[in-house]
Structures are given as C-alpha cells and as structure tokens.
Design goal:
- This is Winged helix DNA-binding protein.
- Keywords: DNA-binding, Transcription, Transcription regulation.
- GO terms for molecular function: DNA binding; DNA-binding transcription factor activity.
- InterPro entries: HTH_MarR-typ, Tscrpt_reg_MarR-type_CS, WH-like_DNA-bd_sf, WH_DNA-bd_sf.
- With about 160 residues, this protein is mainly alpha-helical.
- It has a single domain, classed as Winged helix-like DNA-binding domain superfamily/Winged helix DNA-binding domain (Arc Repressor Mutant, subunit A, Orthogonal Bundle).
Amino acid sequence: MTVRSMIAAGREGSLAVQQLPNSTDREDGSLVPTTTTGHAALALAHELYVGRRKRERFLSGDLFGEPTWDILLDLYVAAREDRRVPTTSACIGAHVPPTTALRWLRILEAKGLVEREDDGRDGRRTFVRLTDRGLLAMDGWLEGMLLALDKAMAKAKAQPAG
C-alpha cells in the first residue's frame, strides 16, 4: 500500500473514529471531549508505551513494527500531561527511521488524528499534537481497555485457587 492510497483511505476515516462519542464545540471551533478518562487512562497509555520497549528485551523489536501506535501513545501522554512535542521528538519516539516516522505523521495528519503547529519563537521547529478527534479516539480505546482489564481481573479473582 502506498502513502497516497493510505491517505486516500483515511479520508473516509476508520469506523472506530467515526463512531466517537458526541463532543461540544468551543468558541474557536475546536472540540471539547465529553468524556474524561482520568489518571488511569494516562497511566495505562504510559505503561503501554514503556512496555513496548521492555518487550524488546524478550522478543526482537522487528517483530512489532507499529510506529503509528508509538506516536499516538506518545502524543496522548503528552496531551494529558499538557506537554508540547516537537516533530523531531515524535519521530524519535516512534523508534523507526525519521523518514518513516514523518510519513506516518503525514498519514495521521491526513486522517485528522494529529496536527502540526509552528513554534512561534523558532521558525525552524514545529510541534505535533493529537487533534480533538485523535484525543477522543485514544480516550475511547483506553477506556475500553481499562474496562477489559477490570473484567479480566474480576474473572481471575473468581477462579478457585489451585
């Protein structure tokens, strides 16, 4: 699949992103998420990102090539911690060559999940962040994972010891 075909496919948006919960508009036209995930979702996103690096101690890193997931997790944590992420840092955090990371950032941007903003003080630098749509998508996925983990733990506790 080429970058152009991936971007074109993204114009319709994925089913999961199309089914996001409703949101409200701010005066500036951006969206305010109507759901909050709190500290648990942030902690889960952080642990997932760190866990992906730890996994490489046991299994070869080239088995798990998902630079977009690394980018999304990294940007989610940054958004919830109210940090700005330079584009170069997002590329480093993807753990792939910079050209590959930039290609995936363009695809995520075309799908409306991330956006870039210029650094007002340094014209050579740009920042990247999740859009409101991207933040809602990550909130929804993380909320679902937290529920699934709770359910799994409840099942495990209900099993007889033995």
